Amino acid sequence: RYDESLNDLPVTMPWQDPNAYSAYHLYVIRLHLDQLEKSRKQIFEELRAIGIIVNVHYIPVHTQPYYERLGFKKGDFPEAERYYQETITIPLYYGLSDEDQNYVIEKLQEIIR
Question: What is the distance between the terminal CA atoms of the chain, rounded to a whole angstrom?
Answer without folding.
Answer: 19
